[in-house]
Design goal:
heterodimer; A: 2 domains; two-stranded antiparallel sheet; two-stranded antiparallel ribbon; about 25% helix; about 10% strand; extended; B: about 300 residues; alpha+beta; Alpha-Beta Plaits; two-stranded parallel ribbon; about 30% helix
């Protein structure tokens, strides 16, 4: 009967020590260490929940709407419904022979077809994979479905070109202002003349 | 004894008289004649740009505006907008995008009133071999194919790198060139003596000398100018890229002309001190290098690969 009496304080001690260790390790995990510009260490205390916010797709912040110029439509082609409202939608994958014969698809043509991006019923809208219909001036969202890395860079102004003011309002260009969506590779240009060689300047 | 003394005194006096007369005569020859305008005197006695008081600077700018307006037959504005507080300009160029079309070169010439003939370009586009990488000993700047980009090549525009430790300003014997608080290295064309030491010191070949009278047609002259930037230059001074100081120092500030024209969006410009700027984003997230890093010039012109 005596043994438990002796063992008990030992157990308690063990329990306390392990608790202390655990709390110490927990406290360590919740401590965020950062260095500021001058190299000074900044330690901020954060709870574990704060450190790892759970990602919930429903809580995802809404995508910014970017002000862009009018998409570069061919003349007289938009709105598409001016013709398509009289044509019965045909979801059949086929070679177009009557209209839009100028469009040559060089954009993963093996896997793609008009209505993957253009909405079958409402032709004035584009269609995301999710089924959401978007306007043509939001087409960057459509491109961003596959080209996520470029989309990310575009949003911060690293991919593509922004005009306007470096410290003021900036205007974005749509992907399609530089890339033909049906044939997106940037086309070669004629270079402007090279500099004159030294010595050739004197007349 | 006194006789001798008097003689030497007379001699001395006559020699002094002679020298005085001679100095005055030479002075008169050297000084501008009757037809010299008052502005010429003012220009001759103009102080160093950084020593000018507000009123003096105003007078100088007015004088230059009048001079240029007369010369080019249109209203020319010469500003001296100071640096914006809390701004340090940075530039980045995406080598994975640039196609070497030279649009930037000519947009720069147009914006910054470079001499057309004799030709001065502030931007030099180098054609490099993909196989050899950034190897400047194999750079070609006179490429002229039908279409760019050419297979197996990439293109690297080089202009003033706006070094944090510019070797060019160190060697100037008269301090006609210096680094401004926003990081732009500028030249005072009225103070430059044309010794070209700075050109020898610059490891990037970014400085250019006006060997002849700049040929700038009035019709093509950009009348929005900055004293330290794109105002018309005289013969015999050095000039260089200023990140379009006349545009970028305004509020809101326009992008430099080269960045605005780039058809592939390879050029990025912004404030290095603004953590939200695109330039900071790409420095933190992309593969970045600076040209001739080993020289410790610390350029604020970054080359990067977006992909």
């Amino acid at each position: 009967m005596k043994t438990p009496h002796i063992a008990r304080p030992k157990m308690v001690l063990l329990y306390l020590v392990s608790l202390a260790c655990l709390s110490a390790s927990l406290a360590y995990a919740a401590r965020l260490k950062e260095f500021d510009r001058s190299g000074k260490l900044i330690v901020t205390e954060k709870s574990a929940a704060e450190m790892q916010p759970t990602y919930d797709i429903k809580n995802r912040p809404k995508e910014n709407i970017f002000a862009v110029p009018r998409p570069p439509f061919s003349e007289g082609i938009f709105p598409c419904s001016q013709c398509h409202s009289y044509i019965k939608p045909n979801p059949q994958r086929r070679v177009l022979t009557e209209y839009h014969t100028d469009i040559v698809l060089h954009h993963a043509e093996g896997q793609r077809w008009c209505t993957d991006c253009h909405n079958l019923i409402n032709r004035d809208k584009l269609r995301l994979v999710s089924g959401e219909l978007i306007a043509f001036d939001e087409s960057y969202r459509l491109c961003g479905q596959c080209h996520g890395d470029k989309f990310r860079d575009w949003k911060v102004g690293v991919h593509g070109k922004r005009t306007g003011y470096w410290n003021g309002d900036k205007q974005y260009l749509l992907c399609v202002h530089c890339h033909n969506p049906h044939d997106p590779k940037f086309k070669a240009l004629k270079p402007l003349p090279p500099p004159v060689r030294p010595g050739a300047t004197h007349k | 004894m006194s006789e001798i003394k008097k003689n030497t005194y007379d001699q001395h006096r006559s020699r002094r008289k002679f020298l005085k007369g001679m100095a005055a005569g030479i002075g008169l020859i050297a000084l501008p004649g009757k037809d010299a305008s008052a502005s010429m005197w003012e220009e001759f006695f103009q102080k160093h740009f950084r020593e000018l008081s507000k009123e003096e600077l105003k007078k100088v700018l007015e004088r230059l505006e009048n001079e240029y307006s007369k010369q080019f037959g249109k209203q020319v504005a010469v500003k001296a907008t100071p640096p914006i507080e809390g701004v340090r300009y940075g530039y980045a160029l995406d080598l994975s995008r640039c196609i070497g079309c030279r649009r930037c070169v000519y947009a720069c010439v147009k914006e910054n009133n470079q001499s057309r003939d004799p030709q001065i370009h502030w931007i030099r586009v180098l054609q490099l071999d993909k196989e050899k990488g950034v190897d400047l000993s194999h750079a070609e700047q006179y490429y002229n194919p039908e279409k760019v980009p050419e297979k197996g090549h990439f293109y690297m525009p080089v202009q003033c790198q706006q070094c944090e430790k510019p070797p060019c300003t160190k060697v100037c014997p008269v301090q006609a060139t210096w680094k401004e608080n926003d990081g732009i290295v500028v030249v005072d064309y009225n103070w430059c003596i044309g010794c070209r030491y700075c050109m020898a010191a610059c490891p990037y070949g970014a400085r250019h000398f006006n060997w002849g009278k700049p040929g700038l047609p009035s019709a093509e002259m950009n009348p929005t100018t900055h004293y330290l930037g794109n105002r018309p230059r005289p013969k015999g001074v050095v000039e260089k890229c200023t990140f379009c100081i006349q545009r970028t120092r305004e509020q809101p500030g326009r992008y430099p002309a080269c960045e605005e024209i780039c058809p592939v969006g390879a050029r990025k410009f912004g404030n290095l001190l603004d953590p939200e700027s695109e330039i900071r984003y790409l420095i933190e997230n992309k593969r970045v290098f600076i040209l001739k890093e080993e020289l410790n010039t610390q350029p604020k012109f970054f080359y990067f690969y977006a992909t």
